Queue: 2 jobs
Job 1
Amino acid sequence: PAAAAAAAVVPAASDHYETRTQRTGMFARPDPIVWPDDPGVVVPKPLSESQLAQYEDQGFLLVRQVIGQEDVKECIEELEELEGDVDAAAARHGSRVALEPDGGCLRSVYALHLDPVSVMGRISTSLPIVSCAQQILGGDVYVHQWRLNLQKAFHGTGFSWHSDFETWHSEDGLPTPRAMSAVLLIDRNREVNGSLMVIPGSHRWFLACPGRQGPENWKTSLRSQHYGSPGEQELSLLAEAGDVVHCTGEPGDVLIFDNNLLHASASNRSPWHRRNVFTVFNSVHNRLEHPFYAEQPRPEHIGHREHCATLHPLQKKV
């Protein structure tokens, strides 16, 4: 949406992605969306040229039935065990559990992929999903963040508009947007049960957000986000140019989206759950540095610095 958004562009600073300062507005993203292949490795190509073109243009892509229904059933059994006893889940996983603002039910659970017996962790980092990330990011990848998001029927609260990269750059130290999310749909995602809303094409623009969070902002932001929310004027410009789309799909589908794509979700007041597994893949060449706009990095379970094993390492070219 270059023409529509031109008036909102501000000059690039020494950090192209400066945010959480006095600087606000939006500017064109200088980095690739689909990254060139790293030399020396054989990068898989599971996505067709048309799928890759849609991802590059729109910033997201829904891939149908990547995971079989038997695997989905196992995931449901595991998450229902978590949901069945919130106190036990909180006691077992500690700060890796985020409750809804009213404290009544689970909102998110982080880093279950590190649990060797987690079905959801195993399936969400399996080769059919990882190979899509390897193709888009142009080489070997690891998990930057893993979370189970639960929008419980009648009770799930929404998420404000944001770019994941804006938060990961400012609070975690992610250098460039060479990362992406793969969302495994556990339930049917409908427009009425809190399905992800996205602004197509918004991934091409970086929106600098006002305000500077205090120490340990993550303790409240995982339940209700305040800092890192773009301005309404910029959101309106991009939405007018690209529309707002609900990412609906069936259990076993995988939604992949760029880490700078603007997205949100409404609260779930429907009688249907919307439970999804978000796995964030980062290039091995884009590991976290010191946070760009925070005093201290967030905890390991939110942004991995230590647990950075390469997933399904690529074969070297001969």
Note: The two ends are 43 Å apart (CA to CA).
Job 2
Amino acid sequence: SSSSSSSSSSSSIAIVGCGVLGTSLCIQILSYPELESIKVWAITKTRNNHESIKEAVGENPNLNIVTMDDVSPETKFDNVIFCAPPSGSDDYPGDVKYAVDNLWCGPDKGRFVFTSSGGIYGPGNGEVVNESSPLPESTMASPRSLRLVKAEENVLSGNGCVLRLAGLYTLDRGAHNYWLEKSGGIVKGSKDGIINLLHYDDAAGACLAALVTENDVRGQIFLISDGNPTTRIGICESALKAKRYGGLEMPSFGADDDATAGKGKIYDGTFTNSFLKWKPRYESFDKFMTSSQ
């Protein structure tokens, strides 16, 4: 691809919605040799987490932590990674479109990377899905999925790229934490329902890969997971191996024939992994939990 669509010579990156994923991405960008002179703007909705971002990343003259209100209307960035979740927005597709149209210098200068969710494929019936698998009819999709689909369309039509992420986790965050500590011992959905997972640091690593690959990512959809799907009960069994969850009880699960929960899907990210030259640092949830002692 031409140098104009490669980001290595670009001078600024905005991370919109800098939470757990965004903070990990700040660390990875700022320690990436080819991006050592790049200015990183960590943009949040409020100032609540500014100190924790600073603490996690460390002092760095190339890091600027601001709220969206601090960004002047005429400021544009060569590269934008939009990883704010839909939950904090009244008009999520509109917020994403605003970022594409107003925060980004455009595809001739750099890249726009949007973190979506593999959840938009719907509940699934045990089938394999990849980057080009069809999405459910809009009448069958959840309101959250419809917002994500519209947001994706706004990114792709502007020549950005979309990363559909598997279920995100760290030791303390994710489905396992909720099920083992906060669900009251009851998990909705059958124990054998398939779940695809991805460590937050690997999600951030995939965003970085989309920024630095020499391949042209404009208008592309990627599917990001660790390539080791598990099940609801498998997640709990793995988490109980970690010292953090030792001694907690296995929860009970929904009925095996609960049609509303679906059997899940198996993500096939073969194309993505090859195209982005990316692979997860944490190859499976079980290995991560087993080593978290």
Note: The chain has a mean pLDDT of 92.
